[in-house]
Recover the amino acids of this structure.
């Protein structure tokens, strides 16, 4: 009896093991499916934010923006160069006119000084005639002085003589600022020439600055163009970051450079009628 019980117990244990193995085999495919689903979800969750497609899109946009900005900088730089040439030409012409007028003022000054010496001699003769009481000679000398003043005495010397008579002076050239009056016109032209020259030099500096901006834009285009040659994503991101930094620096620097004098966009779209 005891042997029969033992055998029956062993049979039950074996049957239970077989049932548990069958259940385990049935549950295993379901668990595998669940694990695969979890792995797929994990992979989706771990998908990188920066992808090759996004990099290419950003590069295409930056290439277009940089190309437009480079064309703008080239155009403004050429305008500065043109205005520089115009200012230099005007400066040279103004300097020539100022030199000519300055020389003319010197000649007029010498001529008026000589005329004053003649008038002074006539006045001395007039005083002698008055002392002699010869009225006929006084009248002749007076008429001669008046004719000479009309013919040979300029406006500046006339003002000096008038000032001399009003202030009881003996020389019209003692009038304050009289000598400068002969050279005022020429000096004004020379000053304008210097101003135009300085303006041309400033335009030259601005044009050089825009040329530097164009070089930086060219560097940006170069960096954007070689991004595709890098296989590793970190390298692409690094080059893209450098290119973007160069672009931002060029834009900020360009905004600090003044526009050409009298610049207006509509001035370049006028049609001749």
């Amino acid at each position: 009896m005891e042997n029969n019980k033992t055998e029956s117990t062993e049979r039950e244990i074996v049957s239970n093991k077989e049932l548990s193995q069958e259940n385990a085999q049935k549950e295993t495919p379901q668990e595998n499916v669940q694990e695969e689903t979890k792995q797929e979800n994990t992979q989706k969750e771990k998908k990188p934010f920066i992808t090759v497609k996004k990099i290419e899109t950003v590069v295409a946009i930056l290439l277009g923006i940089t190309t437009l900005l480079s064309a703008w900088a080239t155009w403004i730089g050429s305008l500065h160069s043109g205005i520089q040439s115009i200012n230099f030409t005007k400066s040279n012409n103004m300097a020539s006119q100022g030199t000519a007028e300055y020389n003319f003022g010197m000649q007029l000054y010498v001529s008026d000084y000589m005329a004053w010496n003649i008038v002074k001699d006539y006045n001395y003769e007039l005083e002698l005639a008055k002392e002699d009481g010869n009225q006929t000679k006084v009248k002749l000398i007076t008429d001669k002085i008046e004719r000479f003043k009309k013919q040979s005495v300029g406006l500046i010397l006339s003002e000096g003589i008038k000032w001399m008579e009003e202030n009881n002076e003996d020389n019209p050239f003692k009038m304050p600022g009289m000598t400068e009056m002969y050279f005022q016109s020429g000096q004004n032209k020379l000053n304008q020439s210097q101003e135009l020259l300085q303006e041309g030099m400033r335009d030259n500096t601005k044009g050089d600055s825009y040329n530097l901006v164009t070089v930086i834009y060219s560097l940006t285009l170069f960096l954007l163009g070689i991004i595709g040659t890098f296989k590793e994503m970190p390298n692409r991101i690094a080059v893209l970051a450098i290119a973007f930094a160069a672009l931002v620096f060029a834009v900020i620097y360009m905004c600090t450079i003044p526009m050409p004098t009298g610049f207006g966009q509509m001035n370049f779209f006028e049609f001749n009628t």
